[in-house]
Amino acid sequence: MAAQTYRFQAHSVSDQHTEEPTINYPTSQTGTTQYKNVDGKETVQVGGVTQVKTKSKEAGVMYGGISIAPDEIDDFVREIEGDQAEQEESEEALAEEEQEEPEGFSDSTNIVLDSMDRGDLANAINQAVDGELDEENIISAVSSLGFSDRESALEVGNNLMDSFKEYFASVAATEGMDAETSWYALTTWNKEEAKKAMHDFVNTRGVDSSRLKEALNQSLNKYGSYENQGLVEVLQSSGYEVRRSPSGGLIVKGNGYTDWVNWSEFRKIYKGG
């Protein structure tokens, strides 16, 4: 690398009675304020930071509080900067891995699912979406696990159902709705896609929830229909004005919403809040 030379016009010399007189320079864009050179040791103060150089082989150069021999300083700095760069790259890679790491189901849940008959599991998913997964169907779903009594089979089946409800609630939260409302919207207003999405969700052991999120988003948008009088009444009782849009959906106003917004936009605002 070629060296670059800077020239400055000194305006005074102070401390002349000492062994190391100080040459004062006017402030410039470089920030240089003082310069000393005594017996080959150069001291330059730039912006309040002092840098020391020396031509003496015996004198050490300070770097981060460590005294380094002049002929070793370049290698030392390269090594330090290389280690720092490597550490930063490692930290960035780790951060990316943590962000991309899928949530998925717990190990205990996966063990039960992997041990179940696939046909029984698929049938149970369809029954859940259809609202038909009662105690007898839950016991039938886990029958391939070989339980000797009804109570044990029902306990394991209910534990599995509770796990699914917890996982579904976390997905529903991303759409700004509670799990109960989200499940109702999904299974009432988008049932066929709900089945496909739930099969994907379970078959990937919760790692891929993209189809379920999309199905849930569509379901909640359809849920905001003027035909859904239950929702209309809830909104009105909460102080909102509700009207039917030309497409049959809802437009909402009130409680801080000064302009009419459609249900999709209302949900986004509600979710953001």
Quick structural overview:
The chain has 273 residues and is an alpha+beta fold. It has helices spanning 73-100, 107-115, 118-130, 135-141, 150-173, 179-189, 191-203, 210-223, 229-237, 263-272, and strands at 12-14, 22-24, 32-38, 41-46, 49-54, 61-63, 66-68, 241-244, 250-254, 257-262. It is 51% helix and 17% strand.
What descriptive keywords fit this protein?
273 residues; 3 domains; 5-stranded antiparallel beta sheet; 3-stranded antiparallel beta sheet; 10 helices; flat
Question: Can you describe what's shown?
Answer:
This protein is of the alpha+beta class. It folds into three domains: 8-71, no CATH class; 103-223, no CATH class; 225-273, no CATH class. Helix content is 51%, strand content 17%. The chain is built from ten helices and ten strands.
Topology:
Layout lengths: L11 E3 L7 E3 L7 E7 L2 E6 L2 E6 L6 E3 L2 E3 L4 H28 L6 H9 L2 H13 L4 H7 L8 H24 L5 H11 L1 H13 L6 H14 L5 H9 L3 E4 L5 E5 L2 E6 H10 L1
Antiparallel strand pairs: 1-2, 2-3, 3-4, 4-5, 6-7, 8-9, 9-10
Helix pairs in contact: 3-4, 3-7, 4-5, 5-6, 6-7, 6-8, 7-8
